[in-house]
Amino acid sequence: MRLVSSTGERPRVVVIGGGVAGLEALLALRTLAGQRVELELISPHPSFHYRPLAVAEAFGAKPSSTLELSAVAADADAEYIQDAVVEIKAGTRSLRLASSRVCNYDALIVAPGARPAEAIPGATTFGLPGSAQRFRTILAEAEANTINRLVFAVPVPVGWSLALYELALLTTERLRSCGARAEVRIVTPEAAPLAVFGGRASGAVLEELEDHGIHFMPGLLPRQVAWGELRCDPGEVRIPTDAVIALPKLLGPDLGGLPRDPEGFLCADAHGLVRGLTDVYAAGDAISFPIKHGGLAAQQAEAVAEAIAARVGVPIHPEPFRPVIRGMLMTGDRPRYLESGIAGGESEPGEISLRPLWWPPSKIAGRYLAPYLMGQVPVPPATPGGVPVETVIGT
Ligand SMILES: Cc1cc2nc3c(=O)[nH]c(=O)nc-3n(C[C@H](O)[C@H](O)[C@H](O)COP(=O)(O)OP(=O)(O)OC[C@H]3O[C@@H](n4cnc5c(N)ncnc54)[C@H](O)[C@@H]3O)c2cc1C
């Protein structure tokens, strides 16, 4: 259905969220639709946060420079409003912002991400405020042999576990280099390491873990840390430990007015169209797709941008979201590149390589944002283990 403007001007497309999905959608739509649309970006924090670098930063890499959303918006010839959306009123095609301002749209792209929360009580939840400092304290204690048993735990549901594998691998590298003797375990509900990338990649990652002396414990659902033990289901398994580092669970966005699944995530079809609505699209960690991953967020945003571009008269056949998951695993040595298609909820055999399997070879792969970031984000010199950060983000 053709997208028309309610004011007689160009259709106004509003993007909620200045993260991976929001920026990919903004850049894609300007590229595909040219000046056929007006674009507006709404996001409460003035800068873009490149989350994968949190792991390198936990090992002492300098924080990456920030990218101002006002600058990205200007490059995309879009208006930037620094505010949070509180409610979407699809009936009147309007939004209520935290400042009480009301904005109108002709098409809306909802990409506010997910909200991280503690999943395993008693663990240090990596990604919550203050967790990087707590992790550094644990690492220093292990280096000093004050603590000897570290567990890295993946909670259910498994959204994106690669960062935890990196933390474990980089920790063992660090401990080895200073002669510390702590034992390191990964406890996960996954049947195999990074199972989402398929059997071939999993097998290679298992060898990598073994080379690092990491004890891999699959098929366990970590529940809580108490009395020096990580307790897991099924079977009330108890793993003695001095410290547990866990990933957060993710909750749906705090936004009123849209249909959600039971966990609070937005329900969208393969073109990103929100269930039951005609002009509201959604992409990224906020939607009900089970894997929460920047590269997939970008692919979802591209599907949305193509769908809207077609509706404003661009002669393209909009492609649906066909997930291909790409991950760069920092090991302390050279990074490993992993890639797999996901069809019908199942991973294909997948690839793992020391050579980049996509270009630019960045942590978050995306057709529009990744090349844009190559020229935009100045990077610090090196991550631990000699992995240059420019390899990590792709500059
Ligand atoms: C430690 C770590 C490592 C990771 N490593 C990788 C990796 O190597 N590769 C990879 O592909 N992915 C990785 N990810 C996952 C990736 O970062 C996320 O999947 C991705 O950021 C999701 O993008 P998004 O745009 O949906 O959400 P976000 O990036 O979270 O962006 C959401 C945006 O919406 C804004 N917002 C929130 N609420 C509102 C509101 N009410 N109104 C307006 N704006 C709002 C936020 O301020 C933010 O700008 C990693 C994640 C973590 C935590």
Description of the molecule:
Mean pLDDT is 92; it is low at 378-392. The longest helix has 18 residues, at 294-311. With 395 residues, this protein is an alpha/beta fold. Helix content is 25%, strand content 25%. The strands form seven sheets. The chain has a five-stranded parallel beta sheet, covered by helices on one side. Strands 11-18-12-13-14 form a five-stranded parallel beta sheet. Strands 21, 22, 23 and 24 form a four-stranded antiparallel beta sheet that branches. Bound molecules: flavin-adenine dinucleotide. The site of flavin-adenine dinucleotide has 37 residues, from helix 1, strand 2, helix 2, helix 5 and helix 7.
Brief rundown of the structure:
The chain has helices spanning 20-33, 53-58, 69-75, 131-143, 162-177, 199-211, 294-311, 369-376, 389-393, and strands at residues 12-16, 38-43, 47-48, 67-68, 79-82, 85-89, 94-97, 102-104, 107-110, 115-117, 124-125, 149-153, 183-187, 214-217, 221-226, 229-233, 237-240, 243-246, 249-251, 280-282, 324-329, 336-343, 346-347, 351-353. It has 395 residues and is of the alpha/beta class.
List keywords for this structure.
395 residues; five-stranded parallel β-sheet; FAD/NAD(P)-binding domain; alpha/beta; 2 domains; binds flavin-adenine dinucleotide
